[in-house]
Design a protein that fits this description.
By secondary structure, the chain is α/β, with parallel strands linked by helices. It is built from 5 helices and 5 strands; from the N terminus they run βαβαββααβα. Strands 1, 2, 3, 4 and 5 form a 5-stranded mixed sheet that branches. The chain is globular. It starts with a strand and ends in a 5-residue tail after the last helix. It binds flavin mononucleotide.
């Protein structure tokens, strides 16, 4: 089993990164192969909504193609973000939006296990979980959504 953890904080060595590393280390200890995507170390531009990914590769040239290939290889994916104003951090939202080619080009996330880590100080973690549930639903499974 290969597990990929996505750290959605731009803060290097922050709380989200710590939480994901603990989860991955724990999985590795019981035999899983693990990999990590650190958004803090990547250049990921926002989706511009051109719709080209319905028929061809994304035209935006940045680090997202490497991230997408890691997600395709994974059996399980942990999506982790700090809570920002009751939702996800902006850089992480860019990442999720740029995952659209995986949906558009044949539901490439279908059947994978999805996990979620929300790191907050005082408020909004459950709302954050609901946000990721929406992503899992629309992007992973929902055949009626393109
Ligand atoms: C712009 C901003 C908005 C935040 N909004 C919330 C919030 O709504 N609820 C909360 O509990 N914490 C909020 N926080 C605190 C962070 O979620 C918290 O410090 C988190 O541990 C940061 O994770 P990191 O170290 O991985 O970046 C916010 C922090 C920032 C910078």
């Amino acid at each position: 089993m290969k597990i990929v953890g996505v750290v959605g904080s731009k803060r290097k060595n922050g709380n989200t990164e710590t939480a994901v590393k603990i989860a991955l280390q724990t999985a590795q200890n019981i035999g899983a192969e693990v990999d990590i995507i650190l958004i803090s170390q990547m250049n990921i531009n926002p989706c511009d909504g051109c719709g080209e990914c319905k028929t061809k590769e994304c035209h935006i040239e940045d680090d997202m193609s490497l991230a997408l290939s890691k997600l395709i290889e994974a059996d399980a994916i942990i999506l982790a973000s700090p809570v920002y104003y009751g939702s996800v951090a902006g850089g992480f939202k860019c990442f999720l939006d740029r995952c659209r080619p995986l949906k558009q080009q044949g539901n490439k996330l279908s059947g994978k296990i999805g996990g979620c880590i929300a790191v907050g100080k005082v408020w909004g973690t459950s709302k954050r979980f609901r946000f990721n549930n929406s992503f899992f639903w629309f992007s992973w499974n929902n055949p009626n959504y393109d």
